[in-house]
Amino acid sequence: MLACPLFLPCQLRDTSSNFSIRRPSAFLFRLPALVSSSLGLGNLYPALKAFASLNCKDHHCTPVHWGTGQGFIYLWTLRLQQQGEAALYRAPDTHVGCVGDMNRHYAFTNGYTAYPHGESGTFSISPHRFQPRSQPALRRRRQLIQRLFIIGGLSICILTLFFPSWRATIFGTLTLGLLSANDDFQLETVRYYDLTNAQGTARGWEREERILLCTPLRDAATHLPMFFSHLRNFTYPHHLIDLAFLVSDSKDETSSLLTQMLKDLQDDPDPKMPYGEVSVIEKDFGQKVNQDVESRHGFAAQASRRKLMAQARNWLLSATLRPNHSWVYWRDADVETAPFTILEDLMRHNKDVIVPNVWRPLPDWLGGEQPYDLNSWQESETALALADTLDEDAVIVEGYAEYATWRPHLAYLRDPYGDPDMEMEIDGVGGVSILAKARVFRSGVHFPAFSFEKHAETEAFGKMAKRMKFSVVGLPHYTIWHLYEPSLDDIRHMEEMEKERLQREAEEKEKAERTKRIKEEFKDTKAQWEKDGAAIQDMMQKDQKQQQQQKQGEATQKQGSKAESSPDSKTPSDKSN
User: Fold this and answer.
1) Average pLDDT score over residue span 176-203
2) For residues 316 and 331, is the Cβ–Cβ distance under 8 A?
3) Same domain (yes/no): 419, 283
4) Where would you find this protein in the cell (predicted)?
5) Are residue 498 and residue 470 in the same domain, yes or no?
6) Domain presence at residue 435
7) Running DSSP on this structure, what letter comes out for residue 367?
């Protein structure tokens, strides 16, 4: 049995005993074919066609109708029996005659009419035309299009359900941009962010991940030229780096010089030089500790100084961190030497928190170099035992004899020839250079301005990150160099060394002058020696000549004396007589 409801509009005409229906509209005859093709009922239309040739006067016919007047809606129910008969049912209180037999020899050339002409009975349906059945190819094409629309609709529903980030694109495409995510079609006071794209990866420069570079400043006018030279040399794309500065409790020209240098940097003609968003925040925290080395690194000022520095870092971070930031890089302004690729080098490790090793150069008379940042360390049992003995508000600081923690420090494990990519798990971190994923701060990790596990600021930040199961590592063989700032002891020693140097120079100068005078007095010693030698030779020759003359004189005298003493000898006078 096959049943199909059809809603057929028509008009009712009563002629005495005959009850007839006027010609339906063209839609009446197309509707069976459309319904049968859309529902895949290929044998419905032939069944309706066969209705015209069947005799139903022995059957009950019932049209079910709603409404009054001339407008009626008939629900025709077609039942196909095994004998090929069709019955038209009507209500018991309404008499409708049955259609007589239809002669198959009076059919139209293109098929039988939709409803036969009744010769005997109380009514007849007389259509003047009908819609031919749909072609099989057209039906298949319609079915294919409908199935494609259904599959496409289901796919869109699945995509929008499981991929919320695609909803704006899908709705914008389907509505031709009328419901797109452009700012022109959204509320000006509403911003939409997808934090799934700001997680931080090992190759952020390829994925265009943004970095927030934070630098606290206080009386740093002398360090700003060096700091901006590092900014110009960074190899990470500058347009992906946002700069954030906090100027606090400064008495020098830090603020004005910072503004001028930022203007020069952002107005640089090189298109790769300007940075992204730049924020300068001014906030004083009542820091009374001086900026000289002795005051900043003195043991008495460490606890209060660290807590105020933690407040400054938290203010700067909370005011400048944006939803599109994937990384946060903390950098001190007094770093003297660092690789230009430090951001990529640290990012490549893909750790939640990572720090390099920090040393500082020294004069030759102090050894040439020295570990600087001792705040990066691994926890030790001795330090834990020490923390249990301290007050609740106490703060342990490294590098002081008052707190002997015996912790392994990252700085002391440096090997100049070691692997720079070697990692070391640490608990405390130093604040000279920190690269952290932004999700670490979004998860609640911050710089405690109170005693957290007997630590504050960056060291407490490292312990809090470890407590929240984030990875905290250091690179013992990857070294950056902090600016050398002599302490008071160094200054005294240098003053003593300067006095010794001046005294030594004075002695050397006096010795040089004495030597010069001696040289001036005896500048022709060889000639003098030759002259003296010649004089000596002359004197010797004269002595020899005198000796010879004396000898000759003595010989002459001897001969004369011999002649006088001889008897036979006579004088010439005697001979003349």
Assistant:
1) 71
2) no
3) yes
4) Golgi apparatus membrane
5) no
6) yes
7) T
Contact indicator for 482, 336 with CB cutoff of 8 Å: yes
Query: How much is the mean pLDDT over the chain?
Result: 77
Asked whether residue 573 is assigned to any structural domain, the reply reads no
Residue 208 DSSP label: T
Q: What is the CATH number of the domain that holds 331?
A: 3.90.550.10
Query: At residue 396, does pLDDT exceed 80?
Result: yes
Indicate whether 317 and 459 sit together in one domain: yes
Tell me, what's the pLDDT at 380?
93
Q: Are 224 and 256 in contact (CB under 8 A)?
A: no
What whole-number distance in Å separates Cα of residue 432 and Cα of residue 437?
17
pLDDT tens digits for range 193-251: 888 878 899 999 999 999 999 999 999 999 999 999 999 999 999 999 999 999 998 88
Using the 3D structure, point to which of 134, 167, 184 is the last residue of a domain. 134
Both 186 and 213 in one domain: the answer is no
| Alpha helices (H) along 321-474 | 342-347, 381-388, 438-442, 457-467
Residues 106 and 201 in one domain: no
Is pLDDT at 29 greater than 50 in this prediction?
no
> Among candidates 282, 241, 219, which has minimal Cα distance to 230?
241
Same domain, 293 and 352: yes
Contact between residue 57 and residue 100 where contact means Cβ atoms under 8 Å apart: yes
Phi then psi dihedrals of residue 336, to 5 deg: -85, -45
Distance CA 537, CA 548 (A): 16
507 vs 185, 365, 497, 504, CA distance in Å?
86, 22, 15, 5
Q: DSSP readout, 235-280?
A: -S-GGGEEEEEEE-S--SSHHHHHHHHHHHHHT-SSTTS--S-EEE
Region 566-570 average pLDDT: 51
Per-residue pLDDT of 522-539, as tens digits, reads 666 666 677 777 888 888
Q: Are residues 396 and 298 in the same domain?
A: yes
CA distance 337 to 420: 16
Q: At which of 85, 107, 134 does a domain end?
A: 134
Which residues face 335 on adjacent strands? 482
Rounded CA-CA distance 523/483 in Å is 52
Q: Is there a single domain that holds both residue 383 and residue 269?
A: yes
Compute the distance between CA of residue 64 and CA of residue 77 in angstroms, rounded to an integer: 9
Number of domains into which the chain is organized: 4
Give residue 70's identity as a one-letter amino acid code: Q
Chain-centre distance of CA 308, in angstroms?
Answer: 28
Q: Is 59 helix (H, G, I), strand (E, B) or coil?
A: coil
- Is there a domain that residue 549 lies in? no
Question: Which of 279-293, 326-340, 397-411, 533-547 is modeled with the greatest confidence?
Answer: 326-340
- Average of pLDDT values for 325-352? 97
- Position 150 pLDDT exceeds 70: yes
Place of tokens 């030597």: 515
Give the tens place of pLDDT for each residue, 252-306.
999 999 999 999 999 999 999 999 999 999 999 887 655 555 555 566 667 888 9
One-letter amino acid identity for 314? N
Domain that holds residue 398: 197-482
Q: Is residue 538 part of a domain?
A: no
Q: Which of 76, 62, 72 is nearest to 32 (CA)?
A: 76
pLDDT at 563: 67
